[in-house]
Amino acid sequence: MKNVLVTGGAGFIGANFVRYLLRVDPQARIVNLDALTYAGSLENLRGLPDESRHTFVQGDICDAPLVERLLVEHDIDTIVHFAAESHVDRSILGPAPFIQTNVVGAFTLLEAARLAWKGKFEGRRFHHVSTDEVFGSLTPDAPPFNESTPYAPRSPYSASKAASDHLARAYFHTYGLPVTLTNCSNNYGPYQFPEKLIPLMILNALESKPLPVYGDGQQIRDWLYVEDHCEAIDLVLRGGRPGETYNIGGGNQPCNLEIVRQICTLLDELRPEGSPHARLITHVPDRPGHDRRYAMDTHKIEAELGWRPRHNLTSGLRATVEWYLSHPEWVKAIRAQNDYQIWLEKNYTKREEFSE
Length: 356
Ligand code: NAD
Ligand code: DAU
Prior knowledge:
Bound molecules: nicotinamide-adenine-dinucleotide, 2'deoxy-thymidine-5'-diphospho-alpha-D-glucose
Largest sheet: 7 strands, parallel
Helix content: 40-55%
CATH class of the largest domain: Alpha Beta
């Protein structure tokens, strides 16, 4: 791995991965292709470990000539594909960009790699980053998803990610493109855009705003600290077998309501003014088609590549709350983005839109 094209590297996980790779691999040079949609920001890339090995290109993954040029000009041997529309609520309110970026974008990258690498696949790797949501929803007692669980996506977001997974596998089977896939559970940690549950709750609580819990709040996610996800991807890039998929997750976890309560308790300790923050918890109408439970069986990546999460939810949540408290300049800059203001307003009206 010398010349790495990271797509979506100005978003939450992509930016964490760029930092991680520059830190652990002194040889890696990164070309970071990101369209800087509402979810991407150069604020996420401030103070990188080694700026000289990072080139940022603002552009769309659906722009085939641009992608082909980057692959050739930078002699790219490894593609790590994060770029996506990633928020389920937005996919319910407006699915079109999800199909464009997540499906057409993935296709454009796969096709560009196939053409640029022209059958000389030795030493190359296309890694596709995907989600546990492609497997659908688990009942309370069902076993966790494993790599053979049939796909059953239930939101426009997860359906678009499922389509891209199928395309990635098709390029391996049909053309021999050296593709690997990872399907990961819910990430949290530094630089997550505050439309997602954990940062939204932290920032709302700090401003004494309502903490909107969808439905009864008993939905279960398999929370994973973002750095553990980055490490898993790095291990798959180095030791994963082409054509294979690896599930990544943090282990069994409490329900959403419990997560929100834990955030409130941390804030009561770290920012006692406004305590108890749990008084702000407000149950609001549920997300349509809301998946009840996700859980990942991670035996495969543990056995083959020796991966295990280094953070548990207690340590990871504390680190995350502390990060948001100690980065007010990042919060201010993200909030100053026009689209964030629009989203905030929409966030309070979206439940009516959901039910239209
Ligand atoms: P994010 O929304 O924070 O970031 C997405 C990034 O992609 C942004 O920087 C955005 O500008 C960029 N982007 C969007 N459309 C683009 C386009 N057409 N061309 C170029 N760049 C574009 O997302 P995230 O949470 O960091 O997720 C990254 C990837 O990981 C996604 O593929 C997502 O499906 C997957 N994933 C996320 C989670 C999670 O919990 N966040 C869990 C599992 C898998
Ligand atoms: O499972 C992996 C997926 O996790 C990723 O593929 C997605 O990109 C990522 O966005 C995330 O999807 P979720 O829908 O699970 O994440 P979100 O943070 O939006 O919601 C987490 C849970 O919290 C979910 O059950 C809905 C609930 N929720 C969310 C918000 C934003 C609330 O109760 N209130 C809220 O305001």
